[in-house]
Amino acid sequence: MSTLTGPTQAVGQDLYTSSANQSLPLGTKVETSDGRAFRYVKVGAAATVPGKVYQSPAEDTTNETLSGGHSVGITALGATQITLTNSITLAANVLQGGYLSVNVTPGPGQLYKIKSNTAVSGAAGMVITLEDPIRVALTASSKVIFLPSPYAGIVVDPGTATGNAVGVAVSVINIGEYGWIQTYGPVSALFTGTGVAGKSVGLLTGGTSGSLAPAIAGTQIIGHNMGTSITGEYALINLILG
What global pTM score does this model have? Predict the structure, then answer.
């Protein structure tokens, strides 16, 4: 993690700029001297709007987080590649920077960061290359699930979340470009409902796209009201995404 020496200066790319060129690994975290934190992201199909909350790409429960997990070939202790034996469709390297979880024994509870993946189209045999070696050998009984980096192709929260909240936009980042999104500390954010100082805020269910709201059971909490928050206005929120 890097600490910023001024209000807008950041390592590799200033906080309030958009760039077609990637200068840092996605998810890189920086902090300002007052404790606000930002993550380096790539934007998806629409430019960001300052003050709106953004999420990771919509979860793909067919080709990524398949119920019951994906089948794998036998993978030895110390190996850095896993080969799937069930058929899926994914583009090359869409999982780069993401994470793989072993969800069925042998090897459950192990998490690995993904370095790359080969392309498959309705076929078995996708090869996932890992950043670190396998710590528990996998057998044909093992199952895995995986997701891309949450900071790759971020999209505005659609009103009912389809991914995990990643932060609040502080500037315009153009379609398909790179920039910073705020994840921690005071931020100006679109709000729906009436917020009370000190109370938790989270994502809506069936609400306004890009807006926060008073937290309710079953929704992701991402911060707290710093003061009274008025519906339809941009409120002062203390983010806690880290």
Answer: 0.91
